[in-house]
Amino acid sequence: MINSKEVIWKKDETISLLLKRMNFVFPMIVVKINGRLIKKDKYSTQLINDNDEISVIHMISGG
Amino acid sequence: MNTREHEKEIRDKLKAVKIGVAGCGGLGSNAAAALVRAGVKNFVLVDRDSIETSNLNRQFFFSKQVGEIKVDALKSNLLSIYADLDIDTFHADLIPGEMHRHFTQCDIVLEALDDAAAKVAFIEDMQINCPKIKLIAVSGIAGTASVDKLEKIRSGSLTVLIDPEAEDSSQGILMAPRIIAIAAIQALEAVIEIISKHDND
User: What structural domains does chain A harbor?
Assistant: First the structure.
């Protein structure tokens, strides 16, 4: 599940590859897996497990 | 429990918490004012800026305060609403890796920074170093759209209020009614968290 939408799980897929597959091109994002924040430097190594709950949150300037 | 007792219980919970505000601009200054009126007494305010004339169209400051340090002016304005507040202020830049340090004693923190990169860095810092502290962040306040489009993404201790169609603040117009409305929604999220958190204790 990504942002509460069902997405087909792929074996050996990292966060970087998943973001690419989902066409998430925004540079300013926060990624959480099962409620745990994943730091940017882990995107290319952190693998996705089947049934992981993933949030990809796009941050827009303004505050 | 009757209505009066229930109200007292809610007021007591609001009095007991400490809320951190990261960034005292359009979101932070207005959210803090709403929380003071709701009955929150303890705050940590962090901001690096001073007040500019261009801030007055949306931030909780007054023309005579132009040039003053934002955290000092906001503290003064909040104390003008109720005098019995406990407010710690830090006129400081939030440095990556150290951003959480001002907020370790807080129960809830409001992310109210301007720059998207700073927002991401702050959320990462808080969620890695203080994963138990409730963090309420906002993404997308510029423009003139209705707040109907605002979505809530919840994951662990993080809630993000997001308008995926909103413009970047460097391009979109900053319109007081929309920004104050979103600041109020952010403050309300904090109130809901405070009320619900200890209900089962």
Answer: 1-63 (3.10.20.30)
Contact B124 A39 (CB under 8 A): yes
Q: How far is B199 from chain A (nearest CA, A)?
A: 22
CA distance B186 to B112: 9
B88 — contact with chain A (CB < 8 Å)?
no
The reply to whether residue B127 touches residue A28, judged by beta carbons under 8 angstroms, is: no
ipTM of the complex: 0.92
CA-wise closest residue to B34 among B191, B159, B174, B150: B191
Name the residue ranges covered by the structural domains of chain B: 3-197
CATH number for the region B3-197 comes to 3.40.50.720
Closest CA to B190 of B47, B8, B28, B76: B28
Q: What is the mean pLDDT of residues B122-132?
A: 96
Q: What is the pLDDT of residues A23-60, one digit of tens each?
A: 988 889 999 999 999 999 999 999 999 999 999 999 99
For residues B200 and B197, what is the distance between their CA atoms, to the nearest angstrom? 8
